[in-house]
UniProtKB/TrEMBL annotation:
SUPFAM superfamilies: C-terminal effector domain of the bipartite response regulators, CheY-like
Taxonomic lineage of the native organism: Bacteria, Pseudomonadati, Pseudomonadota, Alphaproteobacteria, Hyphomicrobiales
Residue ranges annotated for the Response regulatory domain, each copy included: 1-117
InterPro entries xrefs: CheY-like_superfamily (IPR011006), OmpR/PhoB-type_DNA-bd (IPR001867), Sig_transdc_resp-reg_C-effctor (IPR016032), Sig_transdc_resp-reg_receiver (IPR001789), WalR-like (IPR039420), WH-like_DNA-bd_sf (IPR036388)
Record's protein name: Response regulator transcription factor
Residues covered by the OmpR/PhoB-type domain: 124-223
Keywords for the protein's UniProt record, in alphabetical order: DNA-binding, Transcription, Transcription regulation
Residue ranges of the annotated DNA-binding region, renumbered to this chain: 124-223
């Protein structure tokens, strides 16, 4: 999710639409709302933020300091209509990561945010978890050695799960990452539908379900393939293993038949 901050609603809504087309959720804030939101936003919401974009605002040079108090490593990019050297230097002094002159395409913003994260957070362009390999530049994941085409919502969920392999994430965290916080137009339960479809596709491709779910707690991508379990009968019961006794002695009876004598 990206947080868009500008005193002009037409600007934030325009970029929100562009990010939506690329499969990324946004939170649109007026310049005067940023401080209040940062003060009350829970950590789970802030963890879902992948970058801050700062546009026009009278006190915007103070925004980087407010953001760094809650999000120490999240990329901050300033979007300028008419940048000047003095203004650019002031922003870098304040702690921003980049200053871009508009118009700028969303794909360039995503590329720059990815570069910042790789440089500051040692984040790779791709992340692997067992047979699953995901990218963060819009490409489809590789599952079981082959590309898997996924709808953008399912792809974003898989990327989030892979990035948090071995850690349990809540439905709210997934929703915030995919749809953004404060999105009242979409019910949070829609995540369950996306997860169900994603798990079915992964199960078909891998032969097992790599996602573990616990009611009321959340979801977790398991790091490796589960051990083979015992086969099951038609009624769902497991087949008990057969205990074979070792052969101790073999005798030949008078009628030439062989008898096996077990201990």
């Amino acid at each position: 999710m990206f947080v868009l901050v500008d005193e002009r609603e037409i600007v934030t809504s325009g970029y929100a639409s562009a990010f939506e087309r690329e499969g990324f959720a946004t939170l649109e804030l007026h310049a005067e709302e940023l401080g209040d939101w940062l003060a009350v936003a829970p950590d789970s919401d802030l963890e879902a933020v992948e970058g801050f974009l700062i546009g026009a605002g009278e006190t915007r040079t103070t925004f980087p300091g407010l953001i760094r108090n809650r999000c120490a490593d999240t990329p901050i990019i300033v979007l300028e209509d008419k940048p000047s050297l003095d203004t650019t230097l002031d922003f870098f002094t304040a702690g921003v990561d980049d200053v871009l002159r508009k118009p700028v395409h969303v794909k360039e913003i995503l590329a720059r945010v990815g570069a910042i994260r790789r440089r500051t957070l040692a984040e790779d362009e791709k992340v692997e978890s067992g047979p699953i390999q995901v990218f963060f530049d819009g490409r489809d994941p590789i599952v079981g050695g082959e590309d898997m085409m996924l709808p953008r919502r399912e792809r974003r969920i898989l990327e989030y799960l892979v990035r948090n392999t071995g850690r349990r994430v809540t439905k709210s965290q997934l929703f915030n990452a995919v749809y953004g916080v404060m999105n009242e137009e979409v019910d949070e339960c829609v995540v369950e539908s996306h997860i169900s479809k994603l798990r079915k596709k992964l199960r078909i491709r891998l032969g097992y379900d790599p996602v573990e779910s616990t009611r009321y707690i959340g979801y977790m991508l398991k790091a490796g393939q589960p051990a083979q379990s015992a086969p099951k009968l038609a009624d769902g019961k497991k087949v008990a293993p057969v205990a074979w006794a070792p052969i101790k002695e073999m005798k030949t009876s008078s009628n030439k038949k062989l008898e096996l004598v077990n201990s």
